[in-house]
Write a structure and sequence with these properties.
The protein contains seven helices and nine strands; from the N terminus they run ααααβββββαββββαα. The chain has helices spanning 2-47, 54-69, 87-99, 103-128, 176-189, 243-250, 255-262, and strands at residues 132-133, 136-137, 144-146, 156-163, 166-173, 201-206, 209-216, 220-226, 232-238. The protein has a seven-stranded antiparallel sheet with strand order 3-4-5-9-8-7-6, sandwiched between helices. A hairpin with a 2-residue loop joins strand 1 and strand 2. Helix 3 (87-99) packs antiparallel against helix 4 (103-128) and helix 4 (103-128) runs antiparallel to helix 7. The relative contact order is 0.07. Residues 37-48 have a biased composition (Basic and acidic residues). Residues 51-70 have a biased composition (Low complexity). This is Lipoprotein. Residues 1-22 form the signal peptide.
């Protein structure tokens, strides 16, 4: 009997101790929270920054400090000038390098001289193209002469004419892919035409020169005329009313004069 009372008393003591421990834990937690709030309040009073937005503002501050420490953004500079290589100077450099035995430098200078010649030819061809075609004025800022090599390889001359939604683009180039396509049409297609269905391409002539004219509902007309063994002129017309109107636009160009400037036979 005494043992039962003793066990019961121990259980009550343990239960009381457990509840007391839980109560102490809660009191400690509340005291800790109160201390944290007091510290936060003191920090707010000193800095004027609310603790609830500290995470967002610290992120902004870190971004600001990161931006302030980054490299500056370029806001000045006029770019690069499109100046072709000086032909005479490069020829002189080539001769000097050759005499001194610097053959690599001599070869480079000769290539630069040839590139300069090509760019000059391209500019002369561009200047010879009409200023207006079928009432469409040229787009001066679209004029372009580029070369990716030397020896008339990769030289491209571009001029665009535009008014509202109507456009004509003339490209004179040494382009093997275009030449292959035109030669394929001429060699394999002959003068084949169809009387039924949609005629997408056919052979024609522009000022006595053989040509291929194509039509696509999305891109409009495309007229290609070979200018020799490796070069050609391509006109691309958007919103031209008919084949005849496209042909009239192409006839505005001096094809023989262009061939002569390019040295094509």
């Amino acid at each position: 009997m005494k043992l039962k009372f003793l066990l019961a008393g121990c259980a009550i003591l343990f239960a009381y101790a457990g509840s007391a421990q839980g109560l102490v834990g809660k009191l400690k937690q509340k005291a800790s929270q109160a201390a944290e709030k007091a510290l936060e309040k003191k920090a707010e009073d000193k800095t004027g920054v609310k603790s609830g937005s500290s995470g967002e503002q610290s992120g902004d501050q870190s971004n600001s400090s990161s931006n302030s420490g980054s490299r500056p953004t370029n806001t000045k500079g006029g770019g690069l000038t499109a100046t072709p290589p000086d032909v005479k100077q490069n020829l002189a450099d080539a001769e000097t390098a050759y005499k001194s035995g610097s053959y690599g430098e001599a070869r480079y200078a000769v290539q630069q001289a040839m590139l300069g010649v090509e760019m000059e030819i391209g500019q002369k061809v561009l200047a010879s193209l009409p200023e207006t075609v079928s009432g469409l004025p040229k787009v001066a800022e679209a004029d372009q002469v580029t070369s990716t090599g030397y020896g008339w390889a990769g030289l491209t001359i571009v001029r665009e004419y535009r008014n509202d939604d109507k456009e004509l683009k003339a490209t004179i180039a040494n382009n093997s892919a275009w030449m292959s396509a035109v030669n394929m049409y001429m060699a394999n297609g002959g003068y084949a035409q169809t009387t039924g269905g949609q005629q997408n391409w056919k052979q024609t002539k522009v000022k006595g020169h053989k040509a291929i004219i194509e039509y696509d509902e999305n891109s409009g007309y495309k007229l290609s005329v070979p200018l020799g063994q490796s070069s050609l002129i391509v006109w691309e017309g958007i919103n031209y009313a008919s084949e005849q109107e496209m042909m009239s636009a192409a006839n505005t160009f001096d094809i023989d004069g262009i061939k002569k400037k390019l040295g094509e036979q």
